[in-house]
Amino acid sequence: MIRVQDELDDFITAEMDQPVMKEAHFLAQKLAKEMGDQAQAVLFYGSCLRTGDGAGLMDFYILTKGALGYGDGLISRAAHKAVPPFVRYYKCEYEGQVIHAKVAIMTLSHFVALARPGALDISIWARFAQPTALIYARDDAATEAVHDALRNAIMTAMNWAVYFGPDEGAPGAFWCALFRATYAAELRIEDASRADLIVELAAARYDTLFLPALIAAGFLPSSVGKNTYHVPMENNRRKDMRRQWLVRRITSKSVNLLRIFKGAVTFEGRADYVAWKIERRTGITLSLTPWQRAHPLLSAPQILAQMWKKGAFQKRH
After folding, report:
1. How far is CA 233 from CA 162, 208, 224, 237, in A?
2. Closest-CA residue to 148 (of 287, 9, 294, 6)
3. pLDDT tens per residue across span 65-85
């Protein structure tokens, strides 16, 4: 069955092809090259995509052919296959400057599955209903698979935005309600204001996306004023979604907890990542030994002592 191209498809195609800063393009191509035949697609998302800040921590997802892309060793691959993604901190030099990235690696098939409405783990569709650029794709088949996954992610998000949103309101009110709910369903330190900020920083994007996503998700909105819509939902459907969300909330929190435990042991480059974050936040540069890089948990007391000597815990005005 051939699906007719609609406004949502046009929106996704344009957003996937959006221009990105040169640092992100360079890094995505470098990551894809290093992954070799495993790399199917490289997605760029997050705050640096929105702001164009090449000096910040860029966020990438590499979608792979199979679990061989999940790092070295059978145990590591098994852990990341059971609880994806495999996450690493990556840095390299570009035009005389060091650029930094957090890189998540997941099979393309798993990514596609987690973007679908039936996924109990909300992390992928909630994240990739947000702005996303496709910087690298191995072939047309990979591009199409990513496009369809992003479409499913947006339609899934829109379905829940109607459930959590107001009976009637501006597009931003629906999106804010959605992201408050998804933040609460994951183990995050940020409060609801962070969810609202996601929408505020790209308000025009979410306004433009609202109607195409609503219609594609099967809703029939009615306009009740300037940029204000009423989106009906049957009571039976609302009750069913309440039960579904409870399952997703429990599942997502559990999976997040497993990812935290796994990341504490398997996050590649985590010592350098922490050192970079400390330098960015405090201006204090840490000198890490090879042993400290290999055993960040065991060396934590030494790292804390080094931070103390350099004044990291002194009161700052």
Report:
1. 8, 22, 16, 7
2. 9
3. 987 655 566 656 666 666 778
What is the side-by-side strand order in the sheet with 97-107?
86-94, 97-107, 57-64, 39-45, 132-137
Question: Does 306 reside within a domain?
Answer: no
Q: How many Cα neighbours within 13 Å face the side chain of 77? A: 11
Residue 301 lies in a domain: no
Please give the tally of structural domains in the chain: 1
Q: Which tokens go with 178?
A: 């959605």
Q: Which of 179, 152, 109 is nearest to 8 (CA)?
A: 152
Rounded to whole angstroms, how far apart are CA atoms 156 and 129? 8
CATH number at residue 261: 3.30.460.10
- β-strands 86-94, 168-169 pairing: unpaired
Element (H, E) at 222: strand 222-225
- Phi and psi dihedrals of 72, rounded to 5? -90, 150
Is 29:135 a contact under the CB 8 Å cutoff? yes
Ordered DSSP codes for 258-300? HHHHHHHHH-BTHHHHHHHHHHHHH-PPP---HHHHH-TTTTH
CB 20 within 8 A of CB 6: no
- The CA-based angle 202-208-213, given to 5 degrees, is 110
Q: Give the bridge partners for 63, in sequence order.
A: 41, 106
Owning domain of residue 13:
7-266
**Greater model confidence, 188 or 234:** 234
Percent of the chain clearing pLDDT 90 (strictly above): 53
Averaged pLDDT, 253-257? 77
In-domain check, residue 273:
no
Does residue 276 belong to any structural domain of this protein?
A: no
Cα separation, 52 vs 235, whole angstroms: 43
